[in-house]
Each structure stands twice: as C-alpha cells, then as structure tokens.
Amino acid sequence: MKIAVTSASGKLGASIVKHLVNLIGKDNVIGIARTPEKAAHLGVEIRKGDYNSREQFDAVLSGIDAVLLVSGMDTPDKRIVQHRNVIEAAKQNSVKKIVYTSIVGAEENNAFSPIVQTNRQTEKDIQNSGLEWVIGRNGIYIEPDLEYIDTYVKEGEIRNCAAEGKCTYTSREELGYAYAKMLTEDKHNNHIYNLVGNAITQKQLAEDINTVFNTNLVFKNESVEAYKAERTEALGDFMGTVIAGIYEGIKEGANDVPSDFETVTGRPHLSAIEMMEAFRKAQD
Ligand SMILES: NC(=O)c1ccc[n+]([C@@H]2O[C@H](COP(=O)([O-])OP(=O)(O)OC[C@H]3O[C@@H](n4cnc5c(N)ncnc54)[C@H](OP(=O)(O)O)[C@@H]3O)[C@@H](O)[C@H]2O)c1
C-alpha cells in the first residue's frame, strides 16, 4: 500500500510522514512537497507538488493508494481550487482513499470564519469525490504558544481576547499519530473526527506553561477590537485579523468541542502539560 502525504515540507506533513513510516515502513510512504528539498530530510521518496498545479498532482499521484491532503495556507479565495486540484488528480489516478486535515472553528461570526468555511467546502468536495474518505478537524496547535514563550516572558503575560473561553489544544505530534491511523485503518472511512485534547482556558494555559517552563506568566484579557488592532499592527491585515478571529472564536466557545482522538488512536490525547513536556524534551 502506497500512501502519499502533501505539504511534507511543513511541520504537520512531516509529523504524519514520520508516524506513517513507523506503521508501514519508509518504502510505502511518499512525501509530496512544493519545495522538495525542504522535505529531503524525511528519508522517504519525495515528489514535487504545488497545490496550484493540477498537472503536477496528476503526475505525482500515479500508483498511490491513499493520499493525505494537508489544508493549504493561501487566502480563502484560493484554497478551495487548490484543494480541488488534489482531489481531481486523485480521482483521475484511481486513488482509493483521501484523508483531509480540516479545522475546528465557527463557520460564522468571526474573522477566522472565512477560513473555516473554505475547510467545510473542501470537506464537502471530498465527501462527494466518490473515493473512500476520512476528515480530521484539527484543534489549535499548542506549539506556536510554546515557541512564543520568550516573548510572553518579556511581556510578563499572555494577552489575547479569549476571555474565559476554553480551547481544546492539540499538537502536530498528536495529529501525526492520529492521521497515520486514519490512513492505514479502514474502520475510519467515511467519518469526520474532532482531533483535539482537553479544553483549557488561557488562564490554565499560562499556569501550565509556568509549571513546565518555570515561568511566571499571567493571562490578560483584552477586548476583541483592541487585540485585533494590536495583531494587525504586528502581523499585517490578513494574518492579524485571522489571529484575532481565532481568539474571538475561543471566547465564544467555538473551540470547546468533544474529542474523537481516543476513538481514532485507541488512547487518550495527551494533556496540555504532557504536550508541553514533550515539546521541551524535543528542544533539548
Ligand atoms: N490547527 C492549527 O493551529 C493551525 C495553525 C496554522 C495552520 N494550520 C493549517 O495547517 C496546515 C499545516 O500546518 P503546518 O504546521 O504544517 O504549517 P507549516 O509548517 O507552515 O507548513 C505549511 C506547508 O504548506 C505548504 N504549502 C503552502 N502553499 C503550498 C502550495 N501552493 N502547494 C503545496 N504546498 C504548499 C508549505 O510548502 P513550502 O515548504 O513549499 O512552503 C509547507 O509545507 C496549514 O497549511 C494550515 O492550513 C493549522
């Protein structure tokens, strides 16, 4: 069984490749990357595939039994077409199964919703493809917060607009394991799964970081408008607005969802503290 993983040069794609290799061996895993040299370290065959090129995907999906489509990073108007290039190429090559990395979040009411909507459209395209399918809705990665700890320490606080809202964080490592299972076990076919851990508040996030990283952070809530202004100043209009939308969604409960992780993997999702400890260990 040959399984291909798109965006293998990215952190999620690389994690899925690594877990797949553990399950089925490196000769059965193919990484697809827009920038192949960035995926060479994975030690599997790498083929070139840019989501903008249907022709490239027609060529690279030849001989593939199952493909994992990692959602793209482009603006919402471009993503649906990019994902369709992969889906149509999979159909043309008689790929049997497609697995898609979607997202948890509110389809309406915040600045992240247009991105959630594009993910929902791709979910529909995949369900209508005629292939066997599995969809994972990923929680928010915890790693970006951990990579940002030095800045949090300088500022003495974690500041955003999530208020008391709870967020079910996950990690790329946990997701990689879940997707490897979804790709290799037929019992998951035709299911949509929430791939998330326990729900915690931002206050709890700060306390857990303090426990694991020996910091002294507190959580400070800001209004959505003030936080959006701060983030767009730092990150530009598109990304700043999206980030503010994500925390507004957390505030409104969009990321407090039940988890299907144990159904998929047969074991509980790691707690936030356990994910932080694993992250710290990987940095050492
Ligand atoms: N759940 C969350 O918290 C969260 C947070 C951020 C993003 N996401 C979503 O999860 C996805 C994967 O995250 P990640 O951590 O792996 O991100 P990442 O490490 O930044 O990697 C992004 C990947 O997307 C690839 N890519 C971008 N445009 C492409 C195109 N036109 N054709 C083919 N590949 C393209 C990049 O390829 P190159 O190496 O060639 O640049 C790279 O491999 C993201 O794309 C995004 O949709 C989720």
TrEMBL record:
Database matches in InterPro entries: NAD(P)-bd_dom (IPR016040), NAD(P)-bd_dom_sf (IPR036291), NmrA-type_oxidoreductase (IPR052718)
Domain NAD(P)-binding: 8-145
UniProt cross-references to Gene3D superfamilies, sorted A to Z: NAD(P)-binding Rossmann-like Domain (3.40.50.720), UDP-galactose 4-epimerase, domain 1 (3.90.25.10)
Entry protein name: NAD(P)H dehydrogenase (Quinone)
